Amino acid sequence: MPISIIGAGPAGLYTAYLLAKQGKKVNVFEEHKKIGLPVQCTGITTLHLKDLVEIKKEFLINKVNTARIYSNNNSIDFKLKKENIVLDRKKFDIYLAKKAKGAGAKIFLSHKFIKKEKDNIIIKDIKKNKSKKIKNEILIGADGPSSKVSELINKKNKNFWIGIQARVKIKTDKNVFEAHLGSISPKFFAWLVPENADTARIGLATHKNAKFYLDKFLKLKNIKQKDIIEHQAGIIPVYNPKLKIRNKSNNIFLVGDAAAQVKATTGGGLIPSLLSSKALVNSIINKKIYENELKKTVGKDLFIALKIREILNTFSDKDYSYLLELFKNKKIKEIIEEHDREFPSKFIIKLLTAEPRFFYFSKKLFLIKSFLK
User: Fold this and answer.
1) If 288 and its partner were Cys, which of 64, 110, 188, 283 is the partner (CB 3.0–4.6 Å)?
2) Number of C-alpha atoms within 13 angstroms, CB side, residue 214?
3) Which residues contact 136 (CB under 8 A, 6 or more apart)?
4) Sheet holding 44-45, edge to edge
């Protein structure tokens, strides 16, 4: 019997590719009629991507080497030892789809998951407006933050940000991406990600009133309506370590946004999704426990990122300004510039040791320290 994957985003396609490479029969069902649409991602990620897939010119649109962090009228630049890359997410997803197909996976577009019945799933062919029953060995939910597969094993208890951005015409330094902290985007941050010297993605995420805050941010950046190329939006799940990612029978699994495998510090889910896909495939092929495989790869860092986000959510604008002052410490700057943000477990203790005043911010830091032991 084949393995059925619901959702043809990066998590679903990469999982399909890895399983098909291992000789498994894999069907991927995607409700949208095209791969990669709608775009719901800033598209910036770390160079760790090259350890998972080959980085192709066809989907690479920019490289940035500087992170500029703002709080109020204060800012600091971090010169990254490892540059970040900006992707064309539509083309990246198409690339993953080609890899999955090349390995033997089958992809069905305009096919929507309806429900599960014992060893069968009911899939609706949207174009033909017909439902069909498909027998499968394993069901994998890679169907995003509003996952229907997740509802089979979880109550609707996820927490979300609303992410919203505009692609705009703007003169900017194509080597610098910006993050704006504080009340400009409550309990998250605003960003400017350059595609080139004349175009950027400007956006933010919040739990509510996202458009209101985006309009204010665009005004701050002096963006007029005529400068806006297009708007993009989507919901971003907040990582929840209590979320069930498999059922007891080990025939239903979740991966990617469906499993809320997103860094709570940045909202970045691409690298965690691909790493989680590897963990999932290893657990299926080698009959290992999925949660244990995740802990070996990305689970520890997802937990730490969540605790850092809980700390940041208590910050005032004054706290963020003080944080930026601490970042100007030479040792702190060097640590941040040397490590990429994917794996806070590799540098957070170094930060705390180099600058004990970080303890000013939190009663939760001991949880992070104990988790690292």
Assistant:
1) 283
2) 24
3) 1, 2, 3, 4, 27, 119, 120, 121
4) 44-45, 74-87, 60-71, 176-181, 189-194, 199-206, 160-169, 228-237
SS3 call for 300: helix
Domain of 122, CATH number, reads 3.50.50.60
Total tally of structural domains belonging to the chain: 3
Alpha-carbon gap, residue 60 to 227, rounded angstroms: 23
Which amino acid, residue 245? I
Asked whether residue 198 falls in the same domain as residue 72, the answer is yes
| Same domain flag for 149 and 169 | no
Same domain, 98 and 27: yes
Cis bond upstream, residue 38 (ω within 30):
yes
**356 class by beta-carbon count within 10 Å (0-12 exposed, 13-18 middle, 19+ buried):** exposed
Residues 121-168 have pLDDT tens digits of 999 999 999 999 999 889 999 999 999 999 999 987 679 999 999 999
Pair (259, 232) in one structural domain: no
pLDDT of 335 above 70: yes
pLDDT band of 73, cuts 50, 70, 90: confident
The two three-digit tokens of residue 91, written as one number: 């083309």
Strand partners for 79:
66
Confidence at 370, pLDDT banded by 50, 70, 90: very low
Q: Which domain, by its residues, includes 335?
A: 314-372
Enter the tokens of residue 285. 């092929």
